[in-house]
Automatic annotation (TrEMBL):
Pfam families: Terpene_synth_C. Transmembrane segments: none annotated. GO terms for molecular function: germacrene-D synthase activity; magnesium ion binding. It comes from Rosa chinensis (China rose). Residues 10-89 form the Terpene synthase metal-binding domain. Keywords: Lyase, Metal-binding. Its cofactor is Mg(2+). SUPFAM superfamilies: Terpenoid synthases. Its EC number is 4.2.3.75. It comes from the Eukaryota. This is Putative (-)-germacrene D synthase. Coiled coil: none annotated.
Length: 147
């Protein structure tokens, strides 16, 4: 199964990919599956209300609510637990890497997840990127760090 994350990684990884690492990447390992879970659930948790107003497709929050007869608040709490469990799987993959997978490939996936985490930390920074991410980008690239 090809995930968006896996396709993105292949497109930008260039020289660090080997045949073994590609086989690993497309075998849907726990590390890649966890990264997909993190990205999908963070997006759904933060964008759920806005997407419901616009009549978009069903989100993980709505599915959880219907499947478990839960409130939105409970669904968000439970899905956040899934995100935390997925982060644990990512950390495990970094602490106990597979010998055939180059470390730079694992770090590439990790950095992709870090950006995802920042974008969806408090709200849907992807949809409202100009507002949400402006301060982050300014503090990273414009403002100096006092020493």
């Amino acid at each position: 199964m090809f995930t968006v994350e896996a396709t993105f990684i292949v497109a930008i990884a260039g020289d660090i990919l080997t045949r073994d690492s590609l086989d690993w990447l497309f075998s849907d390992p726990k590390f890649v599956k966890a990264s997909s879970i993190i990205g999908r659930l963070l997006n759904d948790i933060r964008s759920h209300k806005l997407e419901q107003k616009r009549g978009h497709v069903v989100s993980a929050v709505e599915c959880y609510m219907k499947e478990h007869c839960a409130t939105e608040e409970v669904a968000v709490i439970e899905l956040t637990k899934h995100v935390n469990d997925a982060w644990a799987d990512v950390n495990e993959g970094l602490l106990h890497p597979i010998a055939t997978v180059p470390r730079p490939l694992l770090l590439l996936i990790l950095n992709f997840l870090r950006v995802t985490d920042v974008i969806y930390k408090r709200e849907d920074g992807y949809t409202h990127g100009g507002v949400v991410l402006k301060d982050y980008i300014t503090s990273l690239l414009v403002e100096h760090v006092p020493i």
